[in-house]
Amino acid sequence: MTSSDLHVALFPQTIIWGDKTANISSLEKAAESLHPDTDLLIIPETFSTGFPSGDKESIRPLAERNTGETIDAVKRIAAKFNIAIAGSFIADTGGSLYNRAFVIEPSGEETFADKRHLFTMAGEHKSFSHGYDRLSVRFRGWNIAMVVCYDIRFPVWCRNRANEYDLLIAVANWPKVRVNAWRQLLIARAIENEAYVCGVDCSGTDSNGYEYDGCSLALDFKGKEINVEGPSVEIPSSHDLMPPIIYANLSKDKLESFRQKFPAWKDADSFKLI
């Protein structure tokens, strides 16, 4: 173990759709059970509500500002357990709704960015506005980028130009019926970008009856799984037993060594997003 390692925990949370109190409670219970060396806890997309369905006005009651119940709770938990927490929530800014990614550090430092690619097949574009910037943050010596669910299908948006990130996080509500695509896309993003990739999906059944199996992967820069399952998380009442937390130790030394030995990133095409 070196000081440049990043210890990551992936929590494939069973989401109770529309129940913020229960979902925030399960997050805190998971944080309490974490290995003490954990630096970063990654949770699913829209973890406090589940992925919403319906028109904009029916979704609006679930939305919050960056200073609302969800982020306030995440800040409290991050500080209490000295970890950073990455996920997304439903945000309301100026009357527009966003699927907003966040990284909250134990110091209270916060970084936000809104989902770029809205899932048109589920009508997300009819209720939400899209973002323009990919989340980027430096935490404990690591450059981290983050995308949300459908974003992972778009390699240009995820492209790691000149090794600008060491770790790409993807958080999702990705149904079981399409989980093979989720797995393969995460692997492809790791290989083509010569970076670690951590993808966290939720588990449970949503309000439309879609099932989620919690498929969550930690991948190295060659696309190989480095998952280590921890114990299941016991949650009282309706949650019963959560899926196991997944742990991964990410090595900066190994990453930099591989990039030097196989510098495919130097031959990448230049481009500009418009």
Measured by DSSP, the beta-strand proportion falls in: 25-35%
Number of strands: 14
Largest sheet: 7 strands, mixed
Number of helices: 7
Shape: globular
Question: Helix share of residues?
Answer: 10-25%
In short:
The chain is 23% helix and 30% strand. It has 274 residues and is of the alpha/beta class.
Provide structural commentary.
By secondary structure, the protein is α/β, with parallel strands linked by helices. It is built from seven helices and 14 strands. The strands form three sheets. The protein has a seven-stranded mixed sheet with strand order 5-4-3-2-1-14-13. Strand 6 and strand 7 (142-148) form a beta hairpin.
Pick out its properties.
five-stranded mixed beta sheet; alpha/beta; globular; 7 helices; seven-stranded mixed beta sheet; 274 residues
List the helices and strands and how they pair.
Elements: E1 6-10, H1 20-32, E2 40-42, H2 56-59, H3 69-81, E3 84-93, E4 96-104, E5 110-114, H4 124-127, E6 135-139, E7 142-148, H5 155-158, E8 167-172, H6 179-193, E9 196-201, E10 203-205, E11 211-213, E12 217-219, E13 228-234, E14 241-250, H7 252-261
Parallel strand pairs: 1-2, 2-3, 7-8, 8-9
Antiparallel strand pairs: 1-14, 3-4, 4-5, 6-7, 9-12, 10-11, 13-14
Helix pairs in contact: 1-3
